[in-house]
Amino acid sequence: MMPLDLGPSRIKLAGAREHIERFKQKTVPLDRSLYDLSAIKTGQSYQLVYQPKGPIAEPLANIVGDALGNLRSALDYVAARIVGGSESVYFPVAPRKDLPSFKSLPAIEGALPGFKNLLFNEIRPAEDPNEALWGLIGKANNQNKHADFIPTLAMVRIENFNGQVGGMFMENCMFGGDATRPMNMISAPGPISFGSQFRTIINARFGPQSSVTGRPVIETLEQTASVVESALNKIDLLAKS
Fold first, then answer.
1. Of the N and C termini of the chain, which has fewer Cβ atoms inside 10 Å?
2. Domain boundaries in the chain?
3. 144 CB contacts (<8 Å, ≥6 apart)?
């Protein structure tokens, strides 16, 4: 077989990594355009209030879905390049137990002998610690691109928070709670003032509907991109052999 043109797949891989970087920019720290932190007077007391400006988790899920969609496309592109022609083929991203009956597998193996052995022994071996990552890729499709990727966002702390409550000074406060919801963070009898250089640090993790529940979003996406890159490299070597 002639060497594969993996250019389109590598472009999709690069696009996925750009989406991962965009997720970082939105969450490390949490983008100030997504929320307000303000001191308000309520009756006879004053409160420091965290208030989302709108939905936070859902737009972030879109970024996650875009990253995973690009990774799946990178794999589907290489499958299409292997088989060629007008036949619709897809890379095997089904659960490993279903791979032997995966519809496109015979066509890919027929066009690239040795692919099946590579798939089962190197790309997706038995007891693969990355199986959950393949499950993540498998859920990225046009019909369900974002709903399963809504992250949980827990507030960890506010850095560079230099505030004054009455005669007390506060620095680098620790607050817990759901960063997608309003929070009354401090209540005091006197006015609350603070500087503008604060950074809100959150912990973004995959939610219960994904195959990687509870795992940190950024690290997991980076690992998934590396798994896809490794698969492309292995297929490239097979095609050149």
1. C
2. 7-240
3. none
The packing angle between helices 7-27 and 217-240, to 10°, is 170
Cβ within 8 Å of residue 209, ≥6 positions away: 147, 148, 150
Rounded Cα distance between 126 and 144, Å, is 27
Q: Which helix (H) or strand (E) holds 183?
A: strand 183-188
Euclidean distance between CA atoms 212 and 206, whole angstroms: 6
| Token output for 218 | 């950024």
Q: What digits encode the pLDDT tens for the residues 70-80?
A: 999 999 999 99
- For residue 57, report the phi and psi dihedrals to the nearest 5 degrees: -65, -40
Contact of 131 with 124, CB cutoff 8 Å: yes
Kindly state the DSSP code that residue 10 receives in the 8-state scheme. Answer: H
pTM above threshold 0.85: yes
pLDDT at 81: 95
Question: What is the residue whose two structure tokens read 């936070």?
Answer: 56
To the nearest 10 degrees (0 to 180), the angle between helices 217-240 and 131-138 is: 90
Measured from the Cβ of residue 67, the count of other Cβ atoms closer than 10 Å reads 25
In 3D space, the residue among 13, 146, 20 whose CA is nearest the CA of residue 71 turns out to be 13
Integer Rg of the chain from CA: 23
- What tokens does 28 get? 């490390």
d(CA 239, CA 233): 10
pLDDT tier at 146, thresholds 50, 70, 90: confident
Residues 1-12: tens digit of each pLDDT? 567 999 999 999
